[in-house]
Amino acid sequence: MTTYYSEEHEWITVEGDIATIGITAHAAEQLGDIVFVDQKEEGDEFESGDEIGVIESVKAASEIFAPVDGEIIEANELLQSNPAALNENPEADAWIYKVKLSDPSQLEGLMDLAGYKTFIS
Amino acid sequence: MSDKPKRTALYDLHCALGGKMVDFAGWEMPVQYTMGIMGEHQHCRSKAALFDVSHMGQVLLHGANAAEKLEALVPAALSKLPEGKARYTFFTDDSGGIMDDLIVANAGDHLFLVVNASMRAQDIPHMKAHLKGVEVTEIFDRALIAVQGPSAQDVVASHCPQAAQLSFMQTCEALIDGTLCRISRLGYTGEDGYEISIPEAEAERITRLMLDHPDCAPAGLGARDSLRLEAGLCLYGNDITPDTSPIEAGLSWAIQKRRREEGGFPGAARIMAELEHGTARKLVGILPQGRAPARAGVEIHDQDGNAIGQITSGGFGPTVQAPVAIGYVHADHSAPGQELHLIIRGKPQPATVCALPFVSQNYKR
């Protein structure tokens, strides 16, 4: 399974036309202690660049921007009961949304791991 | 000011300790270290945290009757402040707004003042212009650290036994490992603790000495903010400004009886009238009922959707383990238990007015 990365520090893994979206360990580290995640609801449709949620850390609020077009089919409930999971395990258990991609070809505009590592260095 | 941010005497130490440096009021300061804001906050409440507050302005006032003369600029009673005592006060302007808040200590042959970093450039000329016959000296060669928390006395007294003898709001000069420092038992966290003014050349050595204590860990500006917020302490620029009066801000306790009766400070007409008749709005503690923090600028509505105020400071309270905020509301909505709505990202979120502070203050009286 390929993982893609956005310049807004999100990761996306794709199976068929369903993608899982989260934030990178680098982003979680930068945000600091996360205390609340404001998630959109199942069925919400969005376009690349839209704000699709807000992550509140002890320090500040940071928007999550959609890296692609799609529709939310599941918001990870774990983040409501345990927002700190985003600090502990941002690239696995603490995914944020499962989405149905409108245009999988948009993934080609994102980075691979090597590209992302260069981007944040 | 487009100048490069200034560095305190402890800059190298912050970097060595893994401090994440940010620009704050023109100073390059650590917002957090490796423990993170949450951990540093908890450490301060359970053991002891050490903060660099050298960016704050340390000022000496020399001259006959300096305390009496300073009363012309602040509403605190200072003329009979005993030697070795410190008092919280604020500069007021002619319309009764707050120009800055500060600590004034009677250091014997002079007064020792600590003012906010961001207001140094205003306060020093303000005092020089209005305090005739008083020599106003801003100190540039001393660091200021705060050691705060239930273990603070252990940490400081192990190098300076006199520190244990001070009670809340007392100050003295004493040697720490051979260096003469000014030690004051006060702070900005709601915990017991000290602020220590140290000659710059010795600052890193003495700070490391404090940090060698197993209970003492460095903490940054992030934890300083969440600690003071939970303790219900106002932040100048957010909760108190030239647009807020001390009475609106709930600071009437800092205006002693003689000054309330006599006035004689800028804005006295308004402030004395507000003491007698109350104010149209009040600063209150606010507990959001959900998990979303309400930050500065969030609008406060009553339950019918009328705008009745604004959050001035807010965030997550690590000790409360929930969001906490303070803000101004119409006086008729300021009683503890009053239900409100906070407009967070366009959506009304339920919240409740509560008495300040959010956590009990643990001062050594």
From TrEMBL, chain A:
Ranges for domain Lipoyl-binding: 18-100
One cellular-component annotation, GO: glycine cleavage complex
Keywords assigned: Lipoyl
PROSITE patterns attached to this UniProt entry: BIOTINYL_LIPOYL, LIPOYL
InterPro entries for this protein: 2-oxoA_DH_lipoyl-BS (IPR003016), Biotin_lipoyl (IPR000089), GCV_H (IPR002930), GCV_H/Fam206 (IPR033753), GCV_H_sub (IPR017453), Single_hybrid_motif (IPR011053)
One GO-annotated biological process of the protein: glycine decarboxylation via glycine cleavage system
Organism: Planktomarina temperata RCA23
Signal peptide bounds: none
One Pfam family from the record: GCV_H
Cofactor(s) named in the record: (R)-lipoate
Subunit composition and interactions: The glycine cleavage system is composed of four proteins: P, T, L and H.
Family stated for the protein in its record: Belongs to the GcvH family.
Name of protein: Glycine cleavage system H protein
Function: The glycine cleavage system catalyzes the degradation of glycine. The H protein shuttles the methylamine group of glycine from the P protein to the T protein.
N6-lipoyllysine: residues bearing it: 59
Entry annotated with the keyword Cytoplasm: no
Co-factor: note: Binds 1 lipoyl cofactor covalently.
SUPFAM superfamilies per UniProt: Single hybrid motif
